[in-house]
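Memo subject: From amino acid sequence to discrete backbone structure tokens
Keywords: amino acid chain, backbone geometry, structure tokens, three-dimensional fold.
Body of memo: The sequence and its backbone structure tokens, given next.
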Amino acid sequence: AGEILLAGRAVTLASPIDAIAHGLGMVHQSFRLFNSLTVWQNVVYGAEPRHGAFVDRRSARERVAALAARYGLAVDADATVGRLPVGVRQRVEILKALYRDARILILDEPTAVLTPRESDALFAVMRELTADRRTILFVTHKLREVMAATDRITVLRDGRVAARLVTRSTGPEEITRAMTGRNIVPPAREAASAPGAPMLEVDGLTVAGRGGGRPAVDGVSFAVRAGEIVGIAGVAGNGQTELVEAIVGMRSASAGRVRVGGHDVSRLPLRARRAAGLAYIPEDRAATGTALRASAAYNLALGFQRQASLSHRGMIDFAAMRARARRLIARYAIKIPDEETPAGSLSGGNLQKLVVARELDHGAPVAIAEQPTRGLDVLATEFIHRAILAERAAGRAVLLVSSELSEILALSDRILVMYEGRMLADLRAEQADEDRLGLLMGGVVAGAAA
């Protein structure tokens, strides 16, 4: 139901090609680029200038370079896209839309893979575009960015419009109330007591990169102690995923050691590492964290079905499994009809709560939380932050991997910064702020120290 109006006229958009023809351009959260091609080849693909039967390469390069200069999108038209930083690749995506003369740009979570400095540069580009009478629809859940980059705000809650606000006349508190229906009080975070013994130790861990190039993880060493949250900050693609997968046993390491509770688990399979005391909240709750077609009860038991509480003489106790599921659904406020409902029918926030409930319920001494609130609303984020802080309060070691600097700063006792597979810095929480971490995430050490 409903209709789409462009310049006051109703239109029917049956495909992306229709949208492009009507002047709409989309910059996706996950880039749609050919990494083996150059910038100009990506930008003009499908709409190449021609000289007779051939692509007019000179004209294509010149048009792309001129477009980039006009809007302050600094990029080398002849650079190979796969070798560019993610912030520059995003500029290529914007150039693709501008090359097709998009008058309306839709940016979907465009800062998810950017450092704070790269985000500020994007906002400057957005201001250039609106100065040229272009319209931007900016989809984000980050309140700082809403306040920094927008003129007007539409808040969606449960698929409906909850508020329409003018940015200069509102603030984060009012936006949050519209998003959630209530005031959000950040979880209380007690001052860190003296942490205990090292519970997770990583020593010289190295993970090979793709295609025989530089390692994805290059000689990384650190420790997480009991009663401590250690955050790893970094722009996506700098080795964080490979590091975590090597720690939990999903990926082979070419060198180094991993110890859990003082025991070397480097050569143990994933199941044995979990049994040794690792809980793991994976980055992708749908692809890695759950079996979407299975029930919530099955998903809440996965990995723990051999425990005495859920099995008897080698057979799963299904009544106990369902009872445990009902208990966890109530404790973690998972919105679901019942425990037999397939996990795939849950919203992103409730699916994440299901994963968190399963992993944290058994009290493993080490918990690894990888992007635990990615794509979640304010309420679900608040709930998961409280759960992570409760793990710390219970004396457990928590490794938090997140691209959200506000999350890293709010929860961590120590912060590690990862860049191109290496640990660039190890800071106490009181030594860090967004500016310093942003510089380090971009590989700038001297400026961050200053």
Summary: The chain is about 35% helix and 25% strand. The radius of gyration is 24 Å.
